[in-house]
Amino acid sequence: MAETSWTTRTMQNGNILQIPFRRTHNITLSEPIKKYIETKYDQHPDTFARDLQIIDQLRKDAVNSLEPHSSGLAKLQQYAAQLVYMSGKFPIDIGVDFAWLPSLGYHGNHAHTENNIRFELANVYFNLAAMYSQLALASNRATSDGLKSAAANFCFAAGVLSYLKTSIIPELRSAPPEEMDTFTLEGLEALMLAQAQECFWQKAVKDGLKDASIAKLAAKVSDLYSEAGDWALKSNSISSPWIHHMNAKHHHFAAAGQYRAACDCLEKRKYGEEVARLRDSLACVNLALKENSYINRAVQADLNGLRTRVQEDLKRAEKDNDTIYLVPEPHKSELKVLDRASMVSARVPKEVSHSQEMLGDHGALGRPLFAKLVPYSVHVAASIYADRRDWLVNQHIIAELEAMTMRIQDLLSNLNLPGSLQALEKPLGLPPSLASHADEVRQANGVHKLHAIVADTDKLKQNVRQMYQDGVDLLRTEAGEDEAARRKFGTERWTRLTAANAVPKVISQVNDIDGYLKQADTSDRLVHEKMRENESLIRLLGGTDRDLEDYVPSSRRATMSAKVERAANTLRATLNEVTRLESRRRKRVDVLKTKAKDDDVLPDLLRETSRLEREYPMQPIAAAQFETLFDTRLEKYDADTTEVKTEEAELEALGQRIRQANQAFQTAKQTGDSSTGGGRETALQNLENAYSTYKQIIRDLDTGRTFYNSLGGIVSRFRDDCRNFVYTRRTEAQRMEADVSDAMAGLQLQQQNSENLLARKQAQGQAQQQQQYRQSQHPQPNHQTYHQHAPPQARMMHHEALQAPMPQRPQQQPPPVTSVQSPVPVPAAPQHTTWQEGMPILFGGQAGASTKANGMSQPVDGRWDPAQGVRFVSR
């Protein structure tokens, strides 16, 4: 039982390691998120003002939770859950530079910075694991409940590290930051599990379990510490003291396991095996104590206490076995390997593994922020679906129905129908069908309506062209400014990309939009040409009935035989069928357009987005993920496609009946006396063709107006993109120009200084050459005398290469200068020259000189007078 008090004491003295917190700087997330919403979404950022405040507060609370407390645990979990949720709403490089300082290893002052939401999430999870480890260390491990709580927190710490390693780091899209490589995370996870297992071993000792059970627990602790140490050796972040600690703990619990196994052998009267296991336990303790210089005092006390206990028991066991039991001691290799009893595993907290399920209005982790923000990819997906739906409806269904109408009209026009039949049925006045068509054109204001639609379309086209030209002019201006700066500063200094390489998507839109406009011009010319060719007849249709009657000549009333009348009735019934089918197609087109207009895919997209965000929280939403949804929704138009094929078959049969009926009608007219005036027949047919052309022009003009409205939105976004790009480029150019100008100014200053130094050295060299030349021409015999009589300080000053004398304040009692004699006599009118190397230093007065005052000669003090200054005399 002595081991119980020993282990309790050592656990309280801090022989367990905790993961320190990583630290960061205070930053604001709301501003970059607000800017991203403003530029990338159709929703206003002010809608999410409250969410922006909350996310800033959540980060502030999370990064400042640096004390082991359950409240800090909740703050980290809430912030991490929101980051996971936001990963589906925003790109990982949202524009925030997250800077974090490492907590392990030897580079604690070097911050790692990334514009990456997942990098931020990885650091938050690392701190969450650190929080769990520190909560475990803060638990009261003197009690059984405290030990259980500590073990659970260590298991949670290992689980968070495992989740970080398997789920977060692989999705980082960059190299793992320091302390988050595989080796480091594996080592920390094994360390947390080892310390959790140690808590269970401690509880077993405290509860007085059997020695055999305690030995199994200790053996597993030893294995986990060994695994942690192996991973730590491969890591560049785990420091040497931690590695030595793990190694010592590995041998420590190997010794503790053997010691407990020896106690079990004593109880089972296996005296020889008891001695062998005690001896092996002592060897393990001695191996652990080799780390004595690197481990803390708590671990040292643990090992010393265990060694003392093992030594005492070994001494007693050897004595008893040698004197009493005489059981042979087995070799170490013959001992059975201890069984292992693992009580721990990495447990991922549900707040981490199922964080998205715990977000909600009443969720444990709070409501999800920016929940009403529709991801940009969803808008893209909705646009893609709308394009596919419109293409299917307009090109495969409506276009086919309209093509059928055009084909049947062409057939009737080629057969001169219904003009030939109308001329026979009503030789006088206007046929009812023609009168109905004329009334329709008249009510729609005919030609004036066409010209109004053309004018509106031209105005739309002009606006689109102006916006397009504005964008192109902006890009052209920016390209000129960039090229001018490149010529001014050179390509080596002006290193930024050209517009074509910086924004290839915007540049490609220039040619795309230009192609759209050219195609539209071609279509407009065709419509206008058709309108000019038929304008007179359309104007006639929109005029009065008298004008129509004047245009359509009357013919004599023909006598129709029974055969001609039957053929005419058959043909009239066939033409009525054409009108009926055409009316049905128009109704079908209107219903189909309404169906497509009401086909709102956004609710289904939002439901699918919510499902994807729950199932794949770390995966950003992409438009490609909705392909299955698109296919399912477009199946609702399969029935319409089938009806088009049925309509096509009916039209083919009807066309065949029209040909047959017209052939029978023409044959009957020729055999009987049923001829009509050719002029009336031609006029009626011309008016029928003009009416058909009028309807086609109306459809073409409506299509063109719709096209320019749609293209206007595209061109408007193109112009806005050009404006934003040019503004950004000009701001960037100003900054780069300032940097380059500063660098060039510094380079010029450096070059000027170098030139000045070079010129000074050349001048000094020339002066030395001149001095050497003068010395060789004029030797100075009294130079040696000067050296012999000058004091040591003067001789030293003479030999030093003085660059320039520095005037100094005279001392209170300057030493007398008595024997300083100039080798060159001072002239009566001294010339002040520049001092050069090798020249002596002479003071204002000389020893032994005298001055005349009032006619009397007075001696002059030989000491230097500061008032007379310092002058240099050439030699």
From TrEMBL:
Q: Which Pfam families match?
A: ALIX_LYPXL_bnd (PF13949), BRO1 (PF03097)
Instruction: Name the source's superkingdom.
Output: Eukaryota
Polar residues: bias regions: 848-857
Q: Which residues form a coiled coil?
A: 644-671
InterPro entries hit by this protein? ALIX_V_dom, BRO1_dom, BRO1_sf
Region annotation (Disordered) maps to 759-828, 844-875
How is this protein named in the record? Answer: BRO1 domain-containing protein
Signal peptide range in chain numbering? none
The record's keywords, sorted A to Z, are: Coiled coil
According to the UniProt entry, which residue ranges have a biased composition of type Low complexity? 759-780, 802-811
Report the GO terms under cellular component.
endosome
What protein family does this chain belong to? Belongs to the palA/RIM20 family.
Q: Which residues form the BRO1 domain?
A: 15-408
